[in-house]
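Here is the promised in-class demo. Please do not try to memorize the tokens; focus on the logic of going from shape to residues.
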């Protein structure tokens, strides 16, 4: 979802999955059930996973993210890894110097950065994958980008020259602000939706969405009014005069859903965080807010009570089999807590509670999900979880997926006192029934730093979880991780 936004930072990802035995790794996948990808290991560079997509025909897995020079503070560059359905690498998938089974974008350019935040397979075009993110131009301006990478019998790892400009769609703000794309979905006809975030001349942050044609141009049939009169775009000004971000997309049968965060109030004191809430909008294919959804096509959701100075972070957005909206998020106290020496106490203020909120197709809280349309997450095990209204040590969900019988969530759990620059986080998987009354969770405590960030399903019905895994002694040295369960 995806590690960053202009306003908030959280892990994310999205996809529909089927039920599986979360405790049984599939040893036929890469020989162990786990695959790791990296450009640099044992160095000061971190390979940061953000999203993955699975080809519906072959089951091949595409993972995106960025490589970060942690010690130097930058720059970063984007990377796309490929694994075959059985977890092995594809030695032919490359753009030359990047190496086998991967494609890099803007690698190690002096003073400039790039990164990928989302990936989607183009089912309308045999053998193509789209990846979205950001790129710093020569003039220092940061713009949103979408790449189309070919992967077929003729071309593997090359950009599609018929998409955008030489395989790249670039979107820059008319003012000097930076633009970063946050999510991407490809429609059945080859058009695509992308969300992003920017800053107005006034300094107000805003979220937006674009629809692109199959050829990688703005689709002028989507919201003719557009942003500042530019068709093909729509702005999400959830609270006029306040900061908003657009982070996730879900595609319904007759509508598009977008979700993000909106600032309720800002704290004047820099030691205090902002009071932030979640929002979701339903937009018609013509690019208009759907008034049959909550009266105006938009709904603001608060895990806590607005004005209570807690920060509600959106992690993911999905639709269940009945078309109901699933919002995954977590809430933490925005006010920092001090110890007796008037120092910030990280063992007390960095606490968080994960939840899933379900809305009806008309945009109201679905009270058939216990309790009151909201399910509190356990953080991978009931003994580690949050009681009603309490905060566990640090339970940060990342991706939600609907199954035929319930809901699955992946994320991470950070034991109390272990949160920091490189937290001792442990990957979590949690499932619960459609009514939210029963559920179970699992925490992978054998790994000192692991984070679940995305889930998807292969054509044979097996579930794949993507995220981060640290395997060396360097705290900043993390790899892309894929796990497949039977």
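The designed amino acids, position by position:
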């Amino acid at each position: 979802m995806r590690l960053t936004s202009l306003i908030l930072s959280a892990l994310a990802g999205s996809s529909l999955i089927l039920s599986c035995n979360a405790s049984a790794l599939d040893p036929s996948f890469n020989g162990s059930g786990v695959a790791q990808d990296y450009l640099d290991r044992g160095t000061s560079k971190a390979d940061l996973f953000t999203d993955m997509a699975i080809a519906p025909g072959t089951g091949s897995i595409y993972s995106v993210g960025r490589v970060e020079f942690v010690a130097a503070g930058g720059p970063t560059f984007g990377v796309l890894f490929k694994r075959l359905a059985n977890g092995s690498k594809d030695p032919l998938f490359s753009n030359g110097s990047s190496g086998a089974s991967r494609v890099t974008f803007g690698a190690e350019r002096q003073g400039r950065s790039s990164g990928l935040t989302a990936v989607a397979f183009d089912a309308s075009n045999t053998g193509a994958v789209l990846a979205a993110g950001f790129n710093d131009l020569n003039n220092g301006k940061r713009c949103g980008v979408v790449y189309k990478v070919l992967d077929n019998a003729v071309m593997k790892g090359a950009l599609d020259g018929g998409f955008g400009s030489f395989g790249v769609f670039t979107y820059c703000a008319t003012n000097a602000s930076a633009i970063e794309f946050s999510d991407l979905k490809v429609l059945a006809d080859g058009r695509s939706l992308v969300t992003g975030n920017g800053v107005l001349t006034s300094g107000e942050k805003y979220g937006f969405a674009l629809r692109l044609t199959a050829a990688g141009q703005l689709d002028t049939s989507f919201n003719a009014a557009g942003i500042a009169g530019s068709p093909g775009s729509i702005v999400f000004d959830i609270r006029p005069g306040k900061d908003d971000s657009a982070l996730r997309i879900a595609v319904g049968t007759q509508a598009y859903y977008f979700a993000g965060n909106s600032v309720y109030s800002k704290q004047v004191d820099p030691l205090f965080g902002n009071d932030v809430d979640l929002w979701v909008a339903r937009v018609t294919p013509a690019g208009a807010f759907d008034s049959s959804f909550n009266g105006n096509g938009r709904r603001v959701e608060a895990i806590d009570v607005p004005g209570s100075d807690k920060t509600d972070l959106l992690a993911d957005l999905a639709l269940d089999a009945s078309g109901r909206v699933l919002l995954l998020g977590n809430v933490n106290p925005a006010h920092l807590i001090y110890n007796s020496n008037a120092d910030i106490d990280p063992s007390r203020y960095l606490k968080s509670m994960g939840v899933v909120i379900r809305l009806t197709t008309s945009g109201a809280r679905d009270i058939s999900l216990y309790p009151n349309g909201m399910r509190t997450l356990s953080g991978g095990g009931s003994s580690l979880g949050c009681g009603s209204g309490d905060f566990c040590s640090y339970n940060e969900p990342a991706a939600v997926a609907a199954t035929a019988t319930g809901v699955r969530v992946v994320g991470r759990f950070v034991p109390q006192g272990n949160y920091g620059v490189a937290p001792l986080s442990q990957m979590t998987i949690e499932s619960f029934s459609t009514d939210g009354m029963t559920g179970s969770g699992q925490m992978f405590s054998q790994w000192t730093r692991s984070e679940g960030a995305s889930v998807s399903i292969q054509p044979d019905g097996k579930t794949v979880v993507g995220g981060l895994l640290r395997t060396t002694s360097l705290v900043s040295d993390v790899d892309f991780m894929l796990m497949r369960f039977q």
